[in-house]
Amino acid sequence: xxxxxxxxxxxxxxxxxxxxxxxxxxxxxxxxxxxxxxxxxxxxxxxxxxxxxxxxxxxxxxxxxxxxxxxxxxxxxxxxxxxxxxxxxxxxxxxxxxxxxxxxxxxxxxxxxxxxxxxxxxxxxxxxxxxxxxxxxxxxxxxxxxxxxxxxxxxxxxxxxxxxxxxxxxxxxxxxxxxxxxxxxxxxxxxxxxxxxxxxxxxxxxxxxxxxxxxxxxxxxxxxxxxxxxxxxxxxxxxxxxxxxxxxxxxxxxxxxxxxxxxxxxxxxxxxxxxxxxxxxxxxxxxxxxxxxxxxxxxxxxxxxxxxxxxxxxxxxxxxxxxxxxxxxxxxxxxxxxxxxxxxxxxxxxxxxxxxxxxxxxxxxxxxxxxxxxxxxxxxxxxxxxxxxxxxxxxxxxxxxxxxxxxxxxxxxxxxxxxxxxxxxxxxxxxxxxxxxxxxxxxxxxxxxxxxxxxxxxxxxxxxxxxxxxxxxxxxxxxxxxxxxxxxxxxxxxxxxxxxxxxxxxxxxxxxxxxxxxxxxxxxxxxxxxxxxxxxxxxxxxxxxxxxxxxxxxxxxxxxxxxxxxxxxxxxxxxxxxxxxxxxxxxxxxxxxxxxxxxxxxxxxxxxxxxxxxxxxxxxxxxxxxxxxxxxxxxxxxxxxxxxxxxxxxxxxxxxxxxxxxxxxxxxxxxxxxxxxxxxxxxxxxxxxxxxxxxxxxxxxxxxxxxxxxxxxxxxxxxxxxxxxxxxxxxxxxxxxxxxxxxxxxxxxxxxxxxxxxxxxxxxxxxxxxxxxxxx
Length: 776
Prior knowledge:
The chain is an alpha+beta fold.
């Protein structure tokens, strides 16, 4: 044991935590796998609640108007149900989010189709349905603002002084002066539409009144403490009287970040008035017409380039459609702005960004959080530069790729060669150059095309966001296991498994000895929301700080028990030793501690890297703690008569830092990439008179197994010191590559350049009719 053990102990870091790769980097089975495949897992609508009533919502059928009166039919027996309007609310009529501009229930003015006006709870679903039909709301229509252009015109102001919910701007160098050095200036306007998250499980909440006047809510949600904050504000209750628990959640993709706050309040209002549990479960149609979507965008690019494709200057004007209320639009806009120049070094740049209010349902969080819109526009602009200069799309990208030391327009320097590595690797394994030449020779009725895109995503909250959250986790040590309490939820992405792996590796104990505890605000500290690709990277790092603290506490107990100096006790690979001699293993020490003192609990807290600086007012500095990078090479087949698009093969190379669980990471890449493809050519939401026309799966088309290409995913690992064991954020990034890749591949196959998403047959027909070049 002697020499080898001494060498190992000499390598031991002061934190007493070593990564020997025994758990991190392995594709362990998901902790929730068997419950889900056997049907044991209970989603919120599966959970029985004795005496539970059912809640429903009376909604606006116009996009903008004055509420004249709410009529309840005298033929209905209203004593059998609970009815709540704005005048009956127990606290302020506002949902506490980034802003408090969204009402719980419309009182005088409605600002979008499907806006909640009243709530009803009934003992049966049939009685609830009858009660909802017995309510008639008379609304005097007002002129609505329905498009970005109408909002910007300011002719009809529906929000603030100018319909602008938020605006930001960043500058680098002198863009206007640098345009004079360009050989050619290339301009284009890009547009993207709504996208529906379409999680498998619709929105659902159940509220239970408590004997102390408080309320407990169990629901399908991403951010327990967002809901908790909104509830304490709406009911003017102290924090300890509001408990939020996450039920097993069937997907979120951002759609269960902000909206559950409103739904939880609705359920709780009814439950407190009815003095019994009340459950609200949306059906698919109600979910699709009333919940938040991805922000539509209009992005104008003006780029000055040399004849060889080198970019010398860029001016970008970015506008998002926020819908009727702010929700999370401010932070979505900021991320959209910060990702606007993509993976390229722009020496002189001006980027301005606005999000405007319209009389459409509020838009909110969606996987990618504003980056997919920006990256689509930037990648298409790179393709337009190549098209205009008669250069290869690859050549133009290579010439302008970010390198180590280059800076984004907001001032942050690039720390690794991720963009170049993923790009070149994707080109090689996809055989891009050979296939591009081969597909260019296609002349039949069905033609193949190949397109490339580059994308990135900053991990964690923007700028000082993580400092503001100040996330915390709790580790509870019992005689048999370590319980992990985090508010980061598992909604299908595998967070419970990955965080368990990080905990086990940090403590150097078996994976099976760590138990992820379902989020419950009465027991779990606020680790921050499950958003922003922060769970593995940022929360994982907080977990490691908790593990370090737990080991030190147990080490102190061992040293005290042995009556030896603390410094003589070391910890390595699950064992406490004194001067290199085995004393006790981790779990034996835990059992001994619990017998004498009870379970040991420690709090792991966030520590902000001292070297990172961010100026919120100027939007300058280190926006993110690390960047994940990706490259996508997509091959498609296009029917030149029907414009049917069929994806054939999708090669995706991503740098995720350390892949904590490679199988889960690949699953995230494949799922996100497919979602991006749907955004690119299938998923259409038409808005008519402020109302979504696509409100069911029969008319909102998403990719199915038939549409799924053959995926070839490769994980490149460039560790990031800011993330747990070198991990970077992953969950959101893959979606951003799909839209621009499918647009580039369709262009190669058809010769038609689309500046908008989704690229439907109607879009291609319109391009052909206006005289765009069709491949002969």
